[in-house]
């Protein structure tokens, strides 16, 4: 059914019109409305090919591709590194020797240089001086429109570490990120502590997040659509080549599985602890202080010989609001604020060669996108010095009841044969 509906759509609807509808859907600024569940046919019709959303992943027995891939990759995965504690981060019963740190377990030792031969070091900082590798974890957040609008207004791209389950819950939001030229990396399927998984289950956490990431507007394209046999492959979009471990929980066993899937591990140097405000363990003021400390380091020359990465999130409205509030100061403190892949001069971010990122030199010269889906060309960096206060930024995300989201969804639903589940 999904194939027929999408085929109908792609046969009869000009791509520009599809994009116009999606743009309308994604222009809403009301968290409740934005976070009303909808069904995207390409996703809802493929759910039986995935583990249950938000549940710890296992390899599906009937998924031949996954079974074969694991059979191949498992040959390079060490068997003498056993799971640490459980997938909820309970390490009470582990007898790991942190001092000798045989597995290069970052969460316990901050080790980023693997001890297992053949693995590249984690990316914890960026080589370009006075540069911030800019990125956000845990998206796509259903109410991220105001935040993404802000980034767009600032001509700012970032690296988005998407959770597979979130991508299936909010595919239009995921589309927006890739369509606007942000770099997409994986952040696992269900966001648990990776070193607590068995090796096959850890593989599944990667596999089902990575291989279904980034539904692209370009894939609603008759050429591509008719050229492929399996409908689900038409909405895969891109195959990511980077990932960030939830909670930073990675060791050489997990790195080996990531390496087998072509994923580079990206960690961080500083933590804003924005994610922890929601737990009540830190206050909003402490989060702003963490940003301020990071900014002060930039201002006092700490990053004059090599740039840095700070952990920040797309997790909730507070974390996005904080990012908006602090952006002008980050821009002032750092010479360059760029996606992590750009700071690494990684011009081919995905396996698919029809996407590219600008080089670092291109980006800082004003070419902030090169060949991302839907949008291309260069754009000058925004040089206006904003003085927006935290209060003003907070207002950006204030609610604004509007019915345009439902109107847009209704229009989209009509276009797609009333397949949307509101
Ligand atoms: Zn996370």
UniProtKB/TrEMBL annotation:
E.C. designation(s): 3.5.1.41
Enzyme class: hydrolase
Entries under Pfam families matching the protein: Polysacc_deac_1
GO biological process assignments: cell wall organization; chitin catabolic process; fungal-type cell wall biogenesis; polysaccharide catabolic process
Residue stretches making up the NodB homology domain: 130-345
Entry membrane topology: Lipid-anchor; GPI-anchor
Cofactor(s) this protein requires: Co(2+)
GO cellular component terms, semicolon-separated: plasma membrane; side of membrane
InterPro entries, per database record: Glyco_hydro/deAcase_b/a-brl (IPR011330), NODB_dom (IPR002509), Polysacc_deacetylase_ArnD (IPR050248)
Principal subcellular localisation of the protein: membrane
Alphabetic keyword roster: Carbohydrate metabolism, Cell membrane, Cell wall biogenesis/degradation, Chitin degradation, Cobalt, Glycoprotein, GPI-anchor, Lipoprotein, Membrane, Polysaccharide degradation
PROSITE patterns named in the record: NODB (PS51677)
Reactions it catalyzes: [(1->4)-N-acetyl-beta-D-glucosaminyl](n) + n H2O = chitosan + n acetate
Superkingdom, natural source: Eukaryota
Record's subcellular location: Cell membrane
GO molecular function, one term: chitin deacetylase activity
Family annotation (SUPFAM superfamilies): Glycoside hydrolase/deacetylase (SSF88713)
Coiled coil: none
Protein name listed in UniProt: chitin deacetylase
């Amino acid at each position: 059914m999904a194939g027929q509906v999408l085929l109908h759509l792609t046969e009869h609807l000009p791509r520009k019109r599809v994009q116009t509808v999606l743009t309308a859907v994604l222009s809403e600024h009301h968290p409740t409305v934005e976070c009303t569940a909808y069904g995207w046919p390409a996703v809802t019709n493929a759910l039986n090919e995935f583990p249950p959303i938000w549940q710890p992943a296992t390899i599906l027995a009937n998924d031949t591709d996954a079974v074969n891939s694991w059979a191949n990759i498992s040959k390079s995965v060490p068997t003498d590194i056993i799971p640490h504690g459980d997938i909820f981060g309970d390490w009470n019963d582990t007898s790991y020797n942190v001092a000798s740190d045989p597995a290069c377990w970052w969460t316990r030792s901050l080790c980023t240089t693997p001890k297992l031969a053949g693995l590249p070091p984690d990316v914890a900082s960026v080589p370009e001086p006075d540069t911030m590798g800019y990125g956000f974890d845990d998206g796509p957040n259903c109410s991220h429109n105001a935040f993404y609008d802000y980034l767009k207004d600032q001509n700012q791209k970032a690296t988005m570490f998407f959770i597979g389950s979130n991508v299936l819950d909010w595919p239009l939001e995921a589309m927006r990120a890739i369509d606007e030229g942000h770099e997409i990396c994986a952040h696992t399927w269900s966001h648990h502590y990776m070193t607590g998984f068995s090796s096959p289950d850890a593989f599944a956490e990667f596999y089902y997040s990575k291989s279904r990431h980034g539904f692209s507007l370009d894939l609603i394209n008759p050429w591509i659509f008719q050229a492929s046999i399996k409908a689900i492959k038409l909405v895969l979009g891109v195959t990511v080549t980077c990932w960030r471990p939830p909670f930073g929980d990675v060791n050489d066993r997990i790195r080996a599985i990531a390496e087998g899937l072509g994923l580079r591990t990206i960690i961080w140097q500083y933590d804003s602890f924005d994610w922890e405000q929601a737990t009540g363990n830190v206050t909003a003021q402490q989060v702003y202080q963490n940003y301020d400390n990071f900014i002060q380091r930039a201002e006092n020359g700490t990053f004059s010989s090599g740039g840095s990465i700070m952990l920040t999130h797309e997790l909730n409205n507070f974390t996005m609001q904080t990012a908006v509030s602090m952006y002008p100061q980050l821009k002032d403190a750092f010479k360059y604020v760029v996606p992590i892949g750009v700071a690494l001069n990684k011009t081919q971010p995905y396996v698919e060669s029809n996407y590219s990122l600008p080089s670092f030199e291109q980006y800082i010269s004003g070419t902030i996108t090169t060949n991302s889906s839907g949008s291309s060309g260069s754009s000058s960096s925004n040089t206006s010095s904003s003085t927006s206060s935290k209060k003003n930024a907070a207002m950006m995300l204030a609610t604004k009841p509007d019915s345009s989201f439902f109107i847009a969804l209704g229009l989209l639903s009509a276009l797609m044969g009333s397949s949307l589940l509101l």
